[in-house]
Amino acid sequence: MPDFCAAYGCSNRRGVESRARGITFHLFPKTRERRRKWELALRRKGFAAADRTVLCSEHFRSQDFDRTGQTVRLRDGVVPSIFNFPAHLQKSIAKRTTTTSRRAEDNLPTGWSQDAPRPDAGATGQRGQSTDHLYALPACPKAIKAKLEEASARVRKLQREKMNSLRREKRAKDNMQALLEELKEKNLINEELKDKLDCYSDLPVQLLSRQGVEYTKAQRDFALTLHLHGPQAYNYLRDTLHIHLPHPSSLQRWLE
Description:
Strand content: under 5%
Order of helices and strands: HEHEEEHHHHHHH
Number of helices: 9
Radius of gyration: 28 Å
Helix content: 40-55%
Coiled coil: 148-196
Protein name: THAP domain-containing protein 6-like isoform X2
Organism: Stegastes partitus
Domain THAP-type: 1-83
Low-confidence stretches: 108-135
GO molecular function: DNA binding; zinc ion binding
Mean pLDDT: 75
Distance between the termini: 41 Å
Shape: globular
Structural class: mainly alpha
C-alpha cells in the first residue's frame, strides 16, 4: 500500500512519479517529544502519527536536509514548517492590548460595544473623542491617494521580482535537466543516480562557472553526490564542459 504524505491538503505519495520529481519521504520521529512537535506543526485536530506515517520533503526547508550521503536525511531536531493551510487553520495575530485600552474598555457604559457607532461629537460636547484612532490616515484626500499609489507601486515591484525569480528558477531547472540528460545519454550516469541528482534541478549551473565565487551549500552537496556516485561524469563536466566544479582534493577536505 503506498505511503501518502500526512500534511493537510498534500497528495504526494511514495512512488516512481514522486521520486522523479526529487521528492523524498520521511517517517515521524520515534522520540515522543519530537514526534509531538511534528504532529502539532500539521495542525490537524486529533491527529496522531502511526509508526509508518510519513511527511514528504516539500514541507521542509532546503537547509533541513543532509544530502552528503547516499540517502537524503533530515538533520537532527528539524520540524516541518512549509504548509498550505486554509484560512481556518492559519495562526491568528493576537490583538495588542495596552493599559490605556483596557482602562478605556473598563469605563465603557454597560451594553456599549466597541464596534457600535459613536454618538455625534457635537451632541456630546466631547469633540476630541470623535477623532480617536484617525491619526494613522492623512486628512487630505490627495495624501491618501498618494499613499495608495505608493503601496500599489510596491506591490507591482514585488510581483515583477516574483515573476523574474520564477523565470530564473525555470531556466535553472531546464539547464540542469539538459545537463543530466546529456550525462545519461553518454552512459556516464544511470537512472538511479539521475534520480538522486534531480533534487538539485533548481541549481543554477551557470554559477558553477564563476571562478572566485564561494560555493553554496547546495552546490557543495551536488558536487559531493556526483563525485561519489559518478566520478566519470564529474570529470566530464570539469574537463570537457569546463564547468567550474570543485577539485576532488577540495571535496576530500570538505568530508574531513
